[in-house]
User: Fold these one by one.
Assistant:
Number 1:
Amino acid sequence: MPEPAPTTPRRFPMWETVAIFAAIASLWPPYVLGWEALGWRLACWAMLGVMVAVLVRRLLAFERLKDEARRTHAQANEGQQGRDRLPWEPPEEKRDA
């Protein structure tokens, strides 16, 4: 019997994803359908504020992920000096000086 696939934790909250779709949907009435009601324009401006908040949160999250990846990479390569060997390069031969 196969084991269920491991689930990865969500990096972003669900409300951010829903807010992105809601912001896109809020653009349709005033700009695509041409509905000129003030409420639709206010909804667009409100969703613009939400999108700025989501953008800032995601930028900060990516910065944290980048820093975490750098720390992990630095810990894995603590004893090594120089650059990493590329997969197609032959291993270096150790020379006794």
Number 2:
Amino acid sequence: MSTDPDDKRLSYVPLDVLRQPPEGRYIQHFASCWWVVHPERGVLLWHHPGSGHGVPQCNRDGVLARRIQEKLYPWADLIQIEHAYLPIVWPIDN
């Protein structure tokens, strides 16, 4: 079962944005993770129905990340990024 790049449950973060710590109170720092990447749009975030925030499609285990990428996102690439950052948005902050 693969997912189409235009699936409404996916969103993307450009690589240059991901590599810069965002401004704000809380951030997630991912160290030495393997990321599923659309060649033109950036890294993938999966949005669960009913959830407002996306789940990064990354893993520290390169073998596991490759399995996920090949099964769910065969049209995407897999790259290792030493330091990546995403903002954490809490419902009370909105």
Number 3:
Amino acid sequence: MNPFPRGTPNKMNQEIHYHVILHSTGKESGPGFKGFDECYAYFFTAAPVGSEEFKQERQKAIDTFSGQQLKHGWTGYKVGKTEMEVGREKVDCLSPSYEYGQRSKAIFKEVGV
């Protein structure tokens, strides 16, 4: 088991886990599933929040994930808040995710961009 899961800041792994919430502003009409109302655009970087490298990684994630959603039913989107992983908390054995081998879940905090 890896003592330093991805996204945990430490000497061996300086990348931090971030995500941007994208909200659908409209969906195509017609039969079938046209996507969820929101989507998380994930990215990892060691750059400080607000730096040029951070902004480039954030925009690349937004472009990638919004492109997927626009191909599959969204007609537009709005960029929501950006959050960073600040830690992990234990998952209770009564949680459905516990049965799938997930013993902890990420805790996110909003960051200003």
Number 4:
Amino acid sequence: MKFEWKAYEDKLKKLREFLSEAQALSPDMEARLFLPGEEGADPSVQVPYVLLCYYVNEDRCYQRKVELFEYYLQGDIKELINKLTAIAEEFAMEIEQSEFGGG
């Protein structure tokens, strides 16, 4: 079901500002917000999303798209940041376990 993500533009602006801070979610991870139709955004994704890029070294990163459906955007900005931080930590743990044999 499609939702009107533009109703959450103020919250998405705050999220973009937070993510633009160096190492906002994790020291080894870059996180960027993309909006539908924006330059650089995946045209197949019709909702805002955060692209997580976990660097295992300078030349190699693993990526994960976190699509921001309405249930993510309905709470306050702190709640959204906490959810994204938890997702980023879980993603980092998955990569570290597969790359470095942990867990």
